[in-house]
Structures are given as structure tokens and as C-alpha cells.
Amino acid sequence: MTTPMTPATPSAPADLLYSEAEEELRTAVRSLLEARGTPAGILARIETDRPHDPALWRTLAAGIGAAGLLVPEKLGGQGASHREAAVVLEELGRAVVPTPYLTSAVLATEILLGCDTEDAVPLLRELASGRQVCVPAVPLTLAPGAPLPAAVRDSGGGTLTGTVTSVADAVAADVLLVLADTGLYAVPAASAGITPQVPLDLTRPLATVTLDAAAGTRLADPATARAAVAGALLSGAGLLASEQLGIAEWCLTETVGYLKVRHQFNRPVGSFQALKHRLARLWLDVASARAAARAAADALATQSPDAPLTVAVAQAYCSGVAVRAAEECVQLHGGIGMTWEHPAHLYLKRAKADSLALGTAGHHRGLVADFAELPAP
Amino acid sequence: MTATTAEQLLTRVRGLLAAHPPATTPRTDFLRARFDAGLAWVHYPEGLGGLGAPRSLQAVVDAELEAAGAPDNDPRRIGIGLGMAAPTILAYGTEEQKRRFLRPLWLGEEVWCQLFSEPGAGSDLAALGTRAVLEEESGEWVVDGQKVWTSSAHTARWAILIARTDPAQPKHRGITYFLCDMHDPGVEVRPLRQITGEAEFNEVFLTGVRIPDAHRLGAVGEGWAVARTTLMNERVSIGGMRIPREGGMIAPVAAAWRERPALRTHALHQRLLELWVEAEVARLTGERLRQQLAVGQPGPEGSGMKLTFARLNQEISALEVELLAEEGLSYEEWTLRRPELVDFTGRDAGYRYLRAKGNSIEGGTSEVLLNIVAERVLGLPSEPRDDKDLAWKDLAR
Ligand SMILES: Cc1cc2nc3c(=O)[nH]c(=O)nc-3n(C[C@H](O)[C@H](O)[C@H](O)COP(=O)(O)OP(=O)(O)OC[C@H]3O[C@@H](n4cnc5c(N)ncnc54)[C@H](O)[C@@H]3O)c2cc1C
């Protein structure tokens, strides 16, 4: 009989703080978003066909250099790491602004880096510079550790046919990365049918992508392609925790601020202990989510063997915190929280959609069960 | 030269180990040599068991000593001394007090207890009524009153004590902080049996206890500020603890789950995984707190960690009793004992379940800590109160 093992603690503790460079990056992103990603502006855009703001994206991606953080300098990127990308995602979560950051600068970038072929380099350069937006044509719900979809078939010579639903940010894409039976392909968005869906979260638009004998450029063989997509899903899930942290943080800060100024019963409502305790608990959860999200970003940045478990822990934890924070935000704002004008609903919708994106908390707990050797009955 | 880098500290540790090989050196001799080498708590000043080094480097020293099989000073048995009395004496003590008390405290030769709570003053600790009156001719304070829930009073040599020295002042202002000799004839310790069946804490009756003025800590009437240092350290000493992954309460449940497949059910699996994840996140949050403290940005996460620790311990131990099924119905023993230490992991699930109930009461209840987070961290307004400016003697009781 084998002795059951306790999952080992990583020998070097993760660096869970923020470096000065990371704080500077945060400041740059935050001031851009405060100026150009205001809730009123987002509300005005999200019901149009084009919720993304291309000018804002150019400044973020190219001006600040956020799109190329994960790309090595010799390939035209910033040569930074998941730690910096995580900080950008915290700020994007805090602003719930529609940008193809998670899809293009994280998922597609990681897939292309995982291909490790010359064929992927030109596209990677385009991505890293922010000149082109590239998104993976997979459902947003696709999770690390889940079977990869096989919806697209190559009918010979790289002509691809198939339908993929719930593709995030496809409406903003110039290029789609398509996983087919014969490998990974880059397909110009213009040669695909892109039909917007009505999403729960209007700030991360979804579309159905239909390929009808569309021509694509092959970037990787099937085995490489599958490994690259699996690796990207792990990074994406790990970094999504930082977006969830940003959402939760905004909700907490905004709610605390409101309860200090809103008076009922001749007192600020924030002086009622029932509400103080709820917010203190939420603060605890947010502080814990920060540690979990930082650990995941650090494990990915250092390519720690502990990354799969740390990412699963962060996802299993942070999804729920973001949703609860947004729910508390709506509830504690009272009637105002239910209105379209107040941005609380943007956060609730993003938080809830995020809790399905890249694997639910339940899925990630299942992964924890495997890694920590706590098998189901 | 003070040793402040990890390298310099490791050289010192190796020197200590070479001069006092743990295998052949008696335990207390080794610990004494370690203290005198400044390797007890490296962030304390030289001559007081430290080297004025960054606090974060203690982990380097501890790991090296542990690997060499060096004896430890059993922090569980002397937790109140280490976690609370020591940092308070360091912050407010005279040079003489520091030299007299810190070494035997760290060595575990003198166990400390905390005489704070009273029957009429728990959460509202500043309402306490134990009196201390200065006797002019002898220069001694004479103390009368009753303390309660005093952990380890039966093994303690010394106590940190707060008492009222001016009833005419508002309650926070008339308090003074003392170091009390538990062997003084006026000190009577009576076991107080608790929910687990044993008597880990006590009632302490103080009758004409004489405390020399040299054992006062901080200025007369300023004991509340001193006590706050103790209370803050109490919370951080819980939150700042370093535990390995799957350390603490989750360890025995996870082990039972792995070793006894017959106990597994789907419902318990989901709860176990949720709590395993929360325990891991709590470990990371504690790690983050320690890293913040080490670079000198002490976050308010300290009270937070204590809150999380209490809730998780209770939920995990509750799950464990359920997981054990029939076995969960029996209890180890109910005979009255007076234990020397609180040992969660060395005991049965039923004990853990019952003892963990105290985690949300001792060291400040969870309700009171939530108030602290809400008001001091989040800046939410306090509830209207009318006890701040009234003299203590005029308060409703
Ligand atoms: C195992 C254990 C060991 C202990 N060891 C020591 C020790 O060594 N030394 C020592 O001095 N003390 C010790 N204590 C005492 C401990 O610090 C007190 O029990 C604690 O501070 C609570 O005080 P209380 O018991 O008087 O409860 P009370 O203050 O009477 O509280 C009763 C209830 O009211 C709630 N409550 C009170 N005020 C508020 C408020 N403002 N808002 C909301 N809810 C409120 C409390 O949370 C609690 O649920 C120990 C306690 C335990 C359980």
C-alpha cells in the first residue's frame, strides 16, 4: 500500500507583495482608466455593436505597453511576467472596462508562445505591439484540465469548418486562433462568420464563430497546439483571479464609501453594526483573495511546479469572493443598486460571468482534489 | 558588528551549533547559549536575545536550527509570555525590567499569564474594576480584585496585570499596567472547568497583593495604551504564525480522508475541498502578512487572521466529527485535568471541536474584532456611545 502524501509546501515561499515597478504600472493603468474608462462611458458603449473602445485599447496596449507584458523583448514585447499582467488585470477588473486584454494579451499570447514556432512570431509581434487583436476561438467557459473541444475540422489544406459558441471578444478581433483536428490555425476574423450573442456580461461581449471552409495559416501540429492551449488556459485561469480581486476591491471600496455618507434613521447607515460586520467580513475575504491571486501570479511567473495547484486554489477561492462582493454592493446600495445608471450591475454581471469563465469554482475544487490527493468517494 | 544579513546569521547559527552540539548539550544549556548568541528573536536588541536584525530573518535561523535537530523552547507552553508579555515589556519596560524578565521568559523557565479579563469586564475590558492603591510609605501597590478565564495561571510564575488606579477618571484613563508575581501570598488560583472537561483556565483572586513600584510597566494611568500593545500582539501572534501547507486543523481531517476511504461521502467531499482551499488561502494570507511585517508595512490583516483562524478551526473540526461517523460520537475523557498547554493536533476530534469554540472568544471575540476591522480598517463610523467621558465610578454596572 502506498502511504498517502501531504501535498508539499513549495520550498521557496512565493513573493506575495507588489514590487515598486508593479505599483508604477498600476498607477499608469489606473490613471488611464480613470480618465477614459468611466462608468458613464462604459454604459453608453455597451449597448452598441462596438462595446470596445479602440482608442483606449491602443493607449493601454501600445502606449503603456500592457499588451506585450508576457512577450519576451526579442519578440517585440516587454519581457515582463505574469506578476505585471496580474496587476493590469486587477485594474481592468476594478474598472470593468471592455478590453480584449484577457483574451488577446493573455490567452492568445500564451498560446502563440506555447507554439514555439517561427510561424507564430509575426503574429506575436503584432499582438505584443497592440497593432492587432487576436483571440482564441474557444468558449469562454473552457477550463484548464477539461477535455479540449473538437468542433472545428480541417477539410483539407487548412480550410476549416465548424462552429464555436461563446467566444469572448471575437467582435473586436482581427485574427482568431482556431484549434482544429490538424493543428492550430490563425484565421483572419474577416473570413469567419461572427454573430454577436446577447451576453449576461455586456462588458465582455460574446459571439458565435462560424467557419465555413475558411482558410487559415497553420501555426502548430495537433500535439503542440493542444499543449499550448492547455498551458494558456492555466495562465488565463490564474490571472483571472486578479481580475476578480479587482472587481471585489472596487465593490468593497465603493460600498464602504457610500455607507459613510448615506444617512437613514438620523445616522450614517455605515454606523449600524449589522452592516459593519458584513463589510468587515467582506474585507477579510478580499484580503485573502489578494494573497491567493498573488500566489497564482507568482507561481506562473516563476514557472513553479506548484502553479497548477496554486491556480486551482486561487480560482476556487476568488470567483466566489468577487460574486459575493458584487452582490453585497448591490444590496447595500439599496434601490440605487438596482438601477441601470449605477455601475454596480456592471460588476455583478462581470463577477458572475467570471465565475463561469475558465472553469467554475467547483471545477477547480475538483482539480484541487486531484493535486492534493483528496479523492472523491 | 550586528549580524543583519541571512549569510551572517547562518554563520552565527553554525558557530552556535559547533560550540554546543545539540546531541550532547543539555536542552536548557543549548537554549541559554542560543539566547546569548542573539539568535532567540533576531529582531530584539543585542543583549536581549537578539541582534537588531530584520524580523523576517528569524525564519532563516529557525529553519537551520530545526534541520540540525536543536531543541526548541516550546512556544505553545509559553505562548502568552512570548507573544504578549515580551513585546510589551520590550516596548514599555525599563532597562532593568527587560534584563530581568526577557531571558527566563524566552527560555521557558518562567511561564507568564495574562490577568486582564474580569467577571464584569470582558469585551469591554477598559471597564475593569480590580483596584491598585499606592501605599506611600512602602512604595508598593496594593491590589484587590478578581480576574477570570486566566489561561495557564496554574503554571505561571508571572502575570501581566491591569488594574484601576484612578476611579475618578474616565475608564480608559485610570488604568495602570503591572507585572505581578504569581507566588505572592495574596494570589489565589482556582481551576475553572471548561466545555472540554478540563481546566485550562482559572479564576484568580487577588487579595492585598503587594506589587513593588519597580514592577509597574509604563506610566501611572497610562495602562490602557500599554494593554493595547499587548492585545495587538496577541492577534498578530496568532495571524503571523507560519504553518506548512495542510498544517493546522485541516491536517487530521485530510489524513483521515486519505486513510479511510470507507468514511467518504460526496457531500463531505465538497465541504472538505472548500475548507482545504480556505485553509490554503489562509496560509497564504498569513504568509503575506509576515512579508508585509518584514518590510515594515504592518497591515491591519492581523485582526483579520485571527477571525479567519477562529472560523476555519470551528468549521473544520465540526466536519471532522461528522466524517468520523460512529467514532465521532465518543469523547476521549471527561476527567478534570489541568493541562500545561493547548494541544490541538495531539487530541481527538471531539476535543478539537469543543476547544475550537474558544477561538472566537479568547483574545477578543469575533464580534469585537469585526468592529475593529470595520472602524479602524474601513473607517466606518462608530456607533453612538456615552461611556467615553464619564468617570469610571459613575458608569452603569
Ligand atoms: C479559552 C479562553 C481563554 C482565555 N484566556 C484568557 C486569559 O488568559 N487572560 C484573560 O485576561 N482573558 C482570557 N480569556 C477571556 C477573553 O478575553 C474574554 O472571554 C473575551 O474578551 C470576551 O469577554 P466576555 O467573556 O466577558 O464576553 P462578553 O464581553 O460578555 O460578550 C458576550 C457576547 O457579547 C458580544 N459582544 C460584546 N460586546 C459587543 C459589541 N460591542 N458588539 C457586538 N457584540 C458584542 C460578544 O462578542 C459575545 O458574543 C479567555 C477566554 C477563553 C474563552
TrEMBL record, chain A:
<keyword id="KW-0285">Flavoprotein</keyword>
<dbReference type="InterPro" id="IPR013786">
    <property type="entry name" value="AcylCoA_DH/ox_N"/>
</dbReference>
<dbReference type="InterPro" id="IPR037069">
    <property type="entry name" value="AcylCoA_DH/ox_N_sf"/>
</dbReference>
<dbReference type="InterPro" id="IPR009075">
    <property type="entry name" value="AcylCo_DH/oxidase_C"/>
</dbReference>
<dbReference type="GO" id="GO:0050660">
    <property type="term" value="F:flavin adenine dinucleotide binding"/>
</dbReference>
<keyword id="KW-0560">Oxidoreductase</keyword>
<protein>
    <submittedName>
        <fullName>Acyl-CoA dehydrogenase</fullName>
    </submittedName>
</protein>
<dbReference type="InterPro" id="IPR036250">
    <property type="entry name" value="AcylCo_DH-like_C"/>
</dbReference>
<feature type="domain" description="Acyl-CoA dehydrogenase/oxidase N-terminal">
    <location>
        <begin position="19"/>
        <end position="129"/>
    </location>
</feature>
<dbReference type="GO" id="GO:0003995">
    <property type="term" value="F:acyl-CoA dehydrogenase activity"/>
</dbReference>
<dbReference type="Pfam" id="PF02771">
    <property type="entry name" value="Acyl-CoA_dh_N"/>
</dbReference>
<feature type="domain" description="Acyl-CoA dehydrogenase/oxidase C-terminal">
    <location>
        <begin position="231"/>
        <end position="370"/>
    </location>
</feature>
<dbReference type="InterPro" id="IPR009100">
    <property type="entry name" value="AcylCoA_DH/oxidase_NM_dom_sf"/>
</dbReference>
<keyword id="KW-0274">FAD</keyword>
<dbReference type="Pfam" id="PF00441">
    <property type="entry name" value="Acyl-CoA_dh_1"/>
</dbReference>
<comment type="similarity">
    <text>Belongs to the acyl-CoA dehydrogenase family.</text>
</comment>
From TrEMBL, chain B:
<dbReference type="GO" id="GO:0005886">
    <property type="term" value="C:plasma membrane"/>
</dbReference>
<dbReference type="InterPro" id="IPR013786">
    <property type="entry name" value="AcylCoA_DH/ox_N"/>
</dbReference>
<dbReference type="InterPro" id="IPR006091">
    <property type="entry name" value="Acyl-CoA_Oxase/DH_mid-dom"/>
</dbReference>
<dbReference type="GO" id="GO:0050660">
    <property type="term" value="F:flavin adenine dinucleotide binding"/>
</dbReference>
<feature type="domain" description="Acyl-CoA dehydrogenase/oxidase C-terminal">
    <location>
        <begin position="221"/>
        <end position="378"/>
    </location>
</feature>
<feature type="domain" description="Acyl-CoA oxidase/dehydrogenase middle">
    <location>
        <begin position="113"/>
        <end position="199"/>
    </location>
</feature>
<keyword id="KW-0560">Oxidoreductase</keyword>
<dbReference type="Pfam" id="PF02770">
    <property type="entry name" value="Acyl-CoA_dh_M"/>
</dbReference>
<keyword id="KW-0274">FAD</keyword>
<dbReference type="Pfam" id="PF00441">
    <property type="entry name" value="Acyl-CoA_dh_1"/>
</dbReference>
<protein>
    <submittedName>
        <fullName>Acyl-CoA dehydrogenase</fullName>
    </submittedName>
</protein>
<dbReference type="InterPro" id="IPR009075">
    <property type="entry name" value="AcylCo_DH/oxidase_C"/>
</dbReference>
<dbReference type="InterPro" id="IPR009100">
    <property type="entry name" value="AcylCoA_DH/oxidase_NM_dom_sf"/>
</dbReference>
<dbReference type="InterPro" id="IPR036250">
    <property type="entry name" value="AcylCo_DH-like_C"/>
</dbReference>
<comment type="similarity">
    <text>Belongs to the acyl-CoA dehydrogenase family.</text>
</comment>
<dbReference type="InterPro" id="IPR046373">
    <property type="entry name" value="Acyl-CoA_Oxase/DH_mid-dom_sf"/>
</dbReference>
<dbReference type="GO" id="GO:0016627">
    <property type="term" value="F:oxidoreductase activity, acting on the CH-CH group of donors"/>
</dbReference>
<dbReference type="InterPro" id="IPR052161">
    <property type="entry name" value="Mycobact_Acyl-CoA_DH"/>
</dbReference>
<keyword id="KW-0285">Flavoprotein</keyword>
<dbReference type="InterPro" id="IPR037069">
    <property type="entry name" value="AcylCoA_DH/ox_N_sf"/>
</dbReference>
<dbReference type="Pfam" id="PF02771">
    <property type="entry name" value="Acyl-CoA_dh_N"/>
</dbReference>
<feature type="domain" description="Acyl-CoA dehydrogenase/oxidase N-terminal">
    <location>
        <begin position="28"/>
        <end position="109"/>
    </location>
</feature>
